[in-house]
Structure formats: C-alpha cells, structure tokens
Amino acid sequence: MKNRSQIKQDRAHETRRTLIEAGKKVFFELGFQKSTMKQIIKEAGVGHGTAYVYFSNKDALLIEIIDSLLEKMYNIAKLSFVPKSKEEAREQITFQVKAFNKQGIENEKLMKLVLEAIGSSEEIRQKWSLVQQHFIDHIEKDILYVQNNNIAYAHLNAKDVANMWYHINESFLWRCLQDPNVSIEQNVELMVHFYMKGLYTD
Predict the structure, then answer these.
(1) Is the Cβ–Cβ distance between 120 and 33 less than 8 Å?
(2) What is the residue-level pLDDT of the chain in tens, covering all 202 positions?
(3) What CATH code is assigned to 4-55?
(4) Is residue 124 within 8 Å of residue 63, measured between CB atoms?
(5) Quick check: helix, strand or coil at residue 12?
(6) What residues are paired with 152 via a beta bridge?
(7) For residues 108 and 45, is the Cβ–Cβ distance under 8 A?
(8) Gene3D superfamilies of this UniProt entry (predicted)?
(9) Cα-Cα-Cα-Cα dihedral of 107, 111, 114, 119, to 10°?
(10) 68: number of Cβ within 10 Å
(11) How far apart are CA 89 and CA 112, in angstroms?
(12) Is residue 103 a contact partner of residue 72, using CB atoms and an 8 Å limit?
C-alpha cells in the first residue's frame, strides 16, 4: 500500500503529464505564438495556480516537450564511433545522418513547432543553442578520434569542422520538413561524400 508521500508524487507526476499532453494538443493546433498558458490550462483541466507550479510559462512547457524528442536524438550522437578505415567511417556517418533525419521527420509537427518558437522565444533560442552545442561536441570528439588515428587530416580544426557539419545537417533537416519531395537518400549520400572528401585522407 502506498503512503501519503508516494500518493502525492503520483498525483504530481500525473498532473505534469496532463499538462504536457494538453500543451502538445494546443501547440499542434494553434502553433507556438498563438497558444497561451490559459488555453493549455483549460485543455488540461487543472487549476491556474497548480499549472504554474510545474511550468512558469508556455516556453518552459515546450522545452519539456522538446526534451522527450531530444533524448532519442542524443542517443544517435552517442553511438560508438571507432572506425578503423575511411570506408568504415563513411558507413557509420551515413547511418547517423539518416537516423538523425529520420527522428526529425517522424516528429515533424514538433520540429516545425520548434522552428517557429526559435523565431519568437528567447528561452527556446537558448535551449536550441544548447542542443546544437551538445551535438557539435559529440561530432568534434568523433573527428578528433579519426584525426588521432590518421584517418582524417590532422591540420583541420576539429571544432570548426564539427560546427560546419552539424549546421549542414540541421539545415538539411529543416529543408526536409518544409519539402516532403526532397530525396533523403540522394542528398545524404552527397552530403557525406563531400564531408568525407574534405576531412578524410585518401
């Protein structure tokens, strides 16, 4: 039998989940800019005072929703990258790029919502900046590995290359979300080809 503390925790978890689901519904229907906390609270069916205990504003609520997607995307960045050859590196990079775009496209509504929010919310811009840096740091680590193992050109600045490669991938994802006719297979092949050509030794 649960004690009072456990019951209270369960209720808090359920209230938080209810607000998140209500937030998704309102955001997806109205977009970020037109949505308000008042509408989300009404959809959730909770008290105003209660809602603000969990989320100070709609920006904080959207960040919570974004985090659920990012966990899956971060797992892609964390995949082991220890290629022993240029060809092995190509295969792993191609897989990562496709997986990254697949996650984004499968969550099309949320990604479009993020793009809208980045343009109007300083909190979301700051959050996305941290997201970008997280990916860039992982890419830089991978680049340093292949440079240290003489698979890639050592004179190139790993941080600069990582920053460039991440933003190419992000731009391509936004493009895919705007135009469903974009060929992912063909474009990923081209992107990886030029990336490999510039970074990896012959």
Answers:
(1) yes
(2) 666 667 667 688 899 999 999 999 999 999 999 999 999 999 999 999 999 999 999 999 999 999 988 888 888 888 899 999 999 999 999 999 999 999 999 999 999 999 999 999 999 999 999 999 999 999 999 999 999 999 999 999 999 999 999 999 999 999 999 998 998 899 999 999 999 999 999 8
(3) 1.10.10
(4) yes
(5) helix
(6) 200
(7) no
(8) Homeodomain-like (1.10.10.60), Tetracycline Repressor, domain 2 (1.10.357.10)
(9) -170
(10) 12
(11) 31
(12) yes
Task: Take residue 107 and report the two structure tokens written for it.
Answer: 């969550």
Q: Name the token pair of 184.
A: 């992912």
Is the distance from CB of 121 to CB of 56 less than 8 angstroms?
Answer: no
> How far is residue 166's CA from residue 143's CA, in Å, rounded to a whole number?
12
Considering the chain, tell me which residue range(s) the CATH 1.10.357.10 domain(s) occupy. Answer: 59-199
CA separation, residue 186 to residues 90, 103, 140, 169, 179 (Å): 15, 18, 25, 14, 15
CATH tag, 59-199: 1.10.357.10
Establish how many alpha carbons lie within 13 A of residue 199's alpha carbon, considering only the half-sphere containing its beta carbon. 28
**Confidence (pTM):** 0.89
Residue at token pair 């992107």: 191
- The amino acid present at 57, given as its one-letter code, is N
pLDDT of residue 1: 62
